[in-house]
Amino acid sequence: MDLSEQTLEKIEKTIAKFPKKRSAMLPILHLIQEEKGYLDPEAEEWVAAKLEVTPIQVREVVTFYPMYRQKPIGKVHVKVCRTLSCALVGAYKVCEKLEEELKCKRGETSADGKYTIEFVECIADCGKGPVVQVDDKMYELIKPEKAGELAEEIKRMAEAGPEAVATAQPGTPGFKG
Ligand code: FES
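# FE2/S2 (inorganic) cluster complex -> structure
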C-alpha cells in the first residue's frame, strides 16, 4: 500500500509503544485513515500483515467502530451533533438546512464529491449547541436561522480549501450571523 514516509514512521513508532503488535491496531487505522481518507480492503490487509493478525480481525474492528470510514468522503466533511443537548436547540433543523443548501443527504457524499454530511454523537461542546464540526473546525451556537450562513462558508471551503477561509466562526464575537 502506498503510504507517505511520515505516516510509515508514525506507524512504526506506534507499534513500538505496545508490548503486543496487535494492540496498536486502532491508532494505526486512524493514521491510515488520516492519510487516505478511508479504509479499503487493501488497507485492512496491509494492517493485518503488519500486525500479524488475520484480515478478518482487522475487518471486525473497522466495521465495529463508526469513526472508521469504509468509503471515500467529500472534500469537506460536515459533522452535525445530534445528541440531546444539541438536538433540543435545533440540531435536526440545522442538519436539514445544510442538506438542502449543500444538496447532500446526511450519511452520504454529494454527487459532485464536495461534501459529506453526517450526524454524530456528542462532540463534547454541549453548552454551545447546536455544534457543527467542519473538517477540524468547530462551529458553535449554530441556530437553524444561522445554518444558511454556515452553508455558504462551507461552500467557500470546498472551492478554496479550509485554510483560505478567514471569516470568524459563528458563535464567536466576530461572526455576524
Ligand atoms: S450534545 Fe452536542 S456537543 Fe454534546
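# post-check
Residues 76-164 form a domain with the Glutaredoxin fold (CATH 3.40.30.10).
Residues 172-177 have pLDDT under 50 and may be disordered.
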